[in-house]
Predict the 3D structure of the following.
Amino acid sequence: MTWTAQQQQWRGDRAVLLVHGIGNAAPGDYGSIADAVKEAAGDGGGPVAMYQLYYDQVNDWFSSKMQLGALLTAATRALATRIDDPELGDTLAELVGDVLWPVLLADARAAVREAYLLQLKQIVDDGVRAGVPARDQRLSIICHSLGCFHTYEVLHHAALFPSHTLQPATHGVRFANVIFMASPVQLIRTIADAMGSLVPNKRWLYTVQGETLSIPRQATLSGGEVRSVENWVTITGNLDPVGGHFFRRRADWAYMSVPGESVAIVQPQDALNITTKAQLAACFRACLRDREPPNITPKDPHCWEAYVTTHASQLRTWLA
Amino acid sequence: MSARWGARRCGALVVVAALGHAGALAGQAPAARLDSTRMATATIGTLLGSAMAGDSIANFGTSRPVVHAKLAEMQMRLSRGALRSLPLQSVATGRATFGTVLRRSAVVPNVVESAALDTLARLMEEEFPAALRPVIGRDSTTQLLTPVDAFNAALRRQSMAASREKLQRFERKYGPGAPPRNLLEVALNYGAQFVPAFQPTAEGWPSRAELIASYVPTYLSVPGAGVKAGAVTVAEVGARFYLWKAGWGSSVLRPGYVSFGAVLAGARDGALQSPFKGASRFGGFVGWGGAKVAVIGGRNARVLVTRQLHVVPWVF
């Protein structure tokens, strides 16, 4: 079945796109997160059009045709070595390893990126059809986990290629907010660097480009520069390894920090009552499943819904 | 060039007057909505009119001479009279092809004019909102820029169609109906990702090609002079090329892919034989979708037929 982008009828000038992370999400999933975000956005700034990007259907095309077990094992081992913690290393590497596979498949990256770009174009088009010019649309993206990687890739690609009509200067498409929750982008960058020549088509893997991670931007014809994102926010928890924290210890090689970012929050996750490394490892082992993505629950430091509810008041400010 | 541009300012002021909002609406909220009728009927002429009006209102001739000169240059490049009445929505999707230029049968922008149109719309989007909003307000700016929005909306819908086409191609190559790969093919095609011909393009179009290396125990020999019908096992090495044409990929007559390559058979016919045992017999195969025909040479030359089958997942 061909992948299709979601369409919505706009009643205001705001739209929010939710991009999920690792997991087998199908249309209709993460409804509670959409409700929480909608509530946080409120009606003060006018009605908000909610979109969700379900890209697992595209991922499934590749998993049924590509068996990457050996390569993923190599990547996970490299990760465990890097984490360098005998108590946590293997478990966290196995959990985080799930975000590495798109790096190994150039076609899978390109296909998910295309689905994402199509969804963004559909959002802008829905807004224009409702009478809101692209330059006046208040667009926000809230992404989680692997969704942060795809978001980072898509924003850079969109800013570079005019054919997608999503450039910030040429087409007036600027995102009011992009909120990365538990982002593995820096972690993927480090592991992709470590894997060196095993990573295909690196030229178009934006996560590994440049001296540091960067906020996408476009040069104007008159010599200026326009950022794609006005409010670039990163949020992670101090127990969340995908967000670059290994039992309250921040690992710079895995923590996403982007020059020029607007807000960076590391949320203390004391409420989860995880006081020892053994408890943390047990928590993650409980959500790991054989040959399937992990089953993340609200007791897990990586839970998306918990990030959204914890930061509801800030979301209200940003999305207003 | 600049003088000619300046002489048209009076026309520009007429456009502003036609909007009926100049100056008076500064600071008004909420923002104006795009007028879908005006978007649908916007032409290259209205775009040029808006460019002139915006240039005049913002006084770019004094405040931003570089922008002013660039706008004038684009105006010059779009000065062919026949272009002015072309709707922007169709211009965005119907650029000049080699055929239309040869036939001279339709009025379409040539390469230089298309580039000028892109540059003019881009300049207006980049420079006008910030310069015009403080002077004529948000609503009038939105109205002035309606032709730009019409042009970009048409380009966006064209781009969305291209994205759908890319996804359909990826699905044809990897989706549920695609021929599966064995582990050797997975490894070979992983390696092939490092070769440009097998990579997606910079714009994200998938490559047509993939490598084949397969153990095929399901060929049947076609009976003929001295040849009985029977199973033959071969090893195939070759390439598969996906066909992207619309309407193809769903039937035997219009398959989603073709394939060709070399085959190797062992000394003896039969199912589940080793193709590497005994005196080797070489040949070639071609595939039309799932249907394949192979010829192996030697003293006992024969023609083989089979269908694309995956007997044991990830193996053969």
Q: What stands out?
A: Residues 106-129 of chain A form the longest helix (24 residues).
